[in-house]
């Protein structure tokens, strides 16, 4: 599983630091609390998630006892919230350039090595990051709003540190807990109905139909150190249709130079195309049984009133397609003028991050 973020817990015990410590920096030694130093997308995963955290962002940390399930809800016992405070690099301390983030404990306090309760052989750290700074019970359904789309994300981490490393830096590897669906569509545009059916900005809305918006995290399983725990979709409480809801997707802004391009149709006639990208976040889950549509598109056409749209649908016929935690299921789709089904040109399953073009790992399907 690709690493996304590393969070370093630096022990500030008097006399505990040495030249062989994992973090090559000098920090003030005042007490035994844990400071959180964070580096995002460092080393071999530099193409992923750089500049993910912003000042004021929070991480929630638990150090549960053996076989205990951590509780990340507001005010939970044994859970502390740390806040990112923008770090000013010091010229006399160049090593800080590798660790740009500093998380400090909130007013409720933070961890101390003196009070942490390890198992017989190691300390267990579980962590989550909620971009919306509040505990996430279900993913938002109105992700067509930018803030709700960002708040639908959740990062989780698991780390076991042996007792011999008590007081040394502890590294947490964060993973995106959910899956992302990305839709890319190009529509021909025209100024009049005689030249074509679609005006500019014809694709008004895209939504995922009948998705599980609740989730569960398996804390009873034994996983590799720093691995991603199993996160699966679950029925949301108090919601009809067996706990499933429609999720409106976020339209990603595109630079005008990339949004519009000129090509040719099947007859070689020059055509202007408009590109759309929509994204949505959901917990890992299976598609509904065969015959159930997955995606719906509301498309405005010439001759319709401003509020009127035509509904198109997409049903993934390829049974190899799947939604996986910490991955992006990316579609390139085609909407035909006289058909109400959307055709799939290409599908890729990519690691959730700033993946390069050669990092394709999933199935492709060509019509």
Show the helix and strand layout.
Elements: E1 5-11, E2 34-40, E3 58-62, E4 79-86, E5 101-105, E6 122-129, H1 146-151, E7 155-162, E8 170-176, E9 179-189, E10 203-212, E11 214-217, E12 231-234, H2 240-243, E13 244-248, E14 250-251, H3 256-259, E15 260-264, E16 270-282, E17 295-299, E18 310-314, E19 327-335, E20 342-351
Parallel strand pairs: 9-19
Antiparallel strand pairs: 1-2, 1-8, 2-5, 3-4, 3-6, 4-5, 6-7, 7-8, 9-16, 10-13, 10-17, 11-12, 14-16, 15-16, 17-18, 19-20
Any overview of this molecule?
The protein is mainly β and 367 residues long. 4% of the residues lie in helices and 38% in strands. It has helices at residues 146-151, 240-243, 256-259; strands at residues 5-11, 34-40, 58-62, 79-86, 101-105, 122-129, 155-162, 170-176, 179-189, 203-212, 214-217, 231-234, 244-248, 250-251, 260-264, 270-282, 295-299, 310-314, 327-335, 342-351. The longest helix has 6 residues, at 146-151.
Descriptive key words:
6-stranded mixed beta sheet; mainly beta; disordered C terminus; disordered N terminus; 8-stranded antiparallel barrel; 367 residues
Low-confidence stretches: 1-31, 39-49, 94-100, 354-367
Read across the widest sheet, the strand sequence of neighbours is 1-2-5-4-3-6-7-8
Radius of gyration: 24 Å
Distance between the termini: 31 Å
- Proportion in β-strands: 35-45%
Helix fraction, binned, reads under 10%
A few lines on this structure:
4% of the residues lie in helices and 38% in strands.
């Amino acid at each position: 599983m690709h690493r996304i973020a590393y969070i370093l817990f630096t022990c500030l015990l008097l006399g505990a630091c040495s030249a062989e410590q994992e973090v090559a920096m000098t920090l003030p030694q005042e007490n035994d609390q844990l400071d959180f130093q964070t580096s995002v997308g460092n080393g071999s995963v530099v193409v992923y998630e750089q500049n993910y955290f912003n000042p004021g962002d929070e991480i929630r940390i638990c150090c549960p006892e053996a076989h205990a399930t951590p509780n990340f809800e507001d005010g939970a016992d044994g859970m502390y919230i740390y806040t990112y405070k923008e770090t000013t690099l010091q010229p006399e301390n160049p090593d800080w350039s590798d660790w740009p983030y500093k998380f400090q404990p909130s007013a409720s306090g933070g961890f101390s090595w003196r009070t942490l309760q390890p198992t017989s052989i190691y300390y267990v750290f579980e962590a989550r990051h909620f971009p919306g700074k509040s505990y996430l019970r279900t993913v938002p359904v109105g992700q067509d709003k930018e803030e709700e789309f960002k708040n639908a994300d959740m990062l989780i981490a698991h780390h076991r540190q042996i007792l011999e490393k008590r007081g040394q830096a502890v590294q947490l590897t964060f993973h995106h807990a959910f899956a992302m669906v990305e839709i890319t569509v190009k529509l021909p545009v025209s100024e009049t109905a005689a030249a074509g059916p679609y005006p500019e900005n014809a694709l008004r809305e895209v939504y995922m139909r009948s998705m599980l918006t609740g989730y569960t995290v398996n804390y009873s399983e034994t996983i590799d150190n720093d691995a991603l725990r199993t996160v699966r979709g679950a029925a949301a409480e108090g919601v009809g249709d067996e706990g499933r809801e429609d999720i409106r997707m976020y339209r990603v802004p595109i630079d005008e130079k990339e949004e519009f391009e000129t090509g040719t149709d099947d007859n070689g006639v020059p055509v202007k195309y408009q590109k759309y990208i929509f994204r949505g976040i959901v917990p890992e889950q299976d598609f509904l049984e065969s015959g159930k549509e997955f995606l719906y598109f509301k498309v405005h056409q010439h001759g319709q009133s401003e509020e009127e749209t035509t509904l198109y649908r997409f049903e993934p016929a390829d049974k190899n397609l799947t939604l996986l935690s910490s991955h992006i299921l990316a579609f390139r789709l085609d909407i035909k003028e006289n058909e109400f089904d959307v055709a799939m040109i290409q599908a890729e399953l990519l690691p959730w991050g700033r993946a390069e073009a050669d990092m394709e790992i999933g199935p492709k399907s060509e019509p």
